[in-house]
Amino acid sequence: MRLKDLFTEIGKESFKWFTTVVDDFDYLVLKKGFHRAVRKYDKDFIKKVLEDTRFWDKYEGVGKGKSALINKVLEKSILSGDWVNKEKVVRRIMALGIDRKQAEMIAVTELANFANRVREEIYKSETRVRYFRYITEDDVRVCEKCREVARRTSKGVSLERLRKIIYDVTGGEARGYQTHPLCRCAIVRAYMKEDIMQSWEKGKVPSAVKFINKKVEIERG
Fold it and tell me: How does pLDDT run across 21-41, given as a tens digit for each residue?
């Protein structure tokens, strides 16, 4: 697949191996955020997110030197667009001497954490969204901590408040928006104008860039 065609052809499933894709709007937020990673002329945004995300300095049972190499694999996968291929990312980590189970855990956890940071930055820089919810997958794998964070944010909270709730629920063990390793939960806008939602329902979906670049007005209630 040519680099310029990557984000016209890529579907939601390419994100779902490491994060929940809540709806079409969330998909476009992710799509735009990750798109910036592979556009040669616009990497300042993604470099900032990578710097702020701060992958683990030392993974469990792995020395700092090898952990740094793992992080380079993750960064390269994000910047090149190879993150769409789970097997390719996992195998690159395994090539450093990491067993498959841990390699998969690292890949899923770190990319999920990065995805939520992308969401945060896109919402901050290109929308007027100020209230958020924490959304879990709807399956038996969801833990009670994630369900509790989702419950406490169901009416919409600020990002600062959301992080405080995650910290309190996890006893300070959370990292960013991830309550635990392999956490798939997503931060999404809490409210959207009814007319915008109706346009989605009628299938009038504008392009990712045009839609996200509009200063979408979000209302409470």
Answer: 988 888 888 888 787 666 544
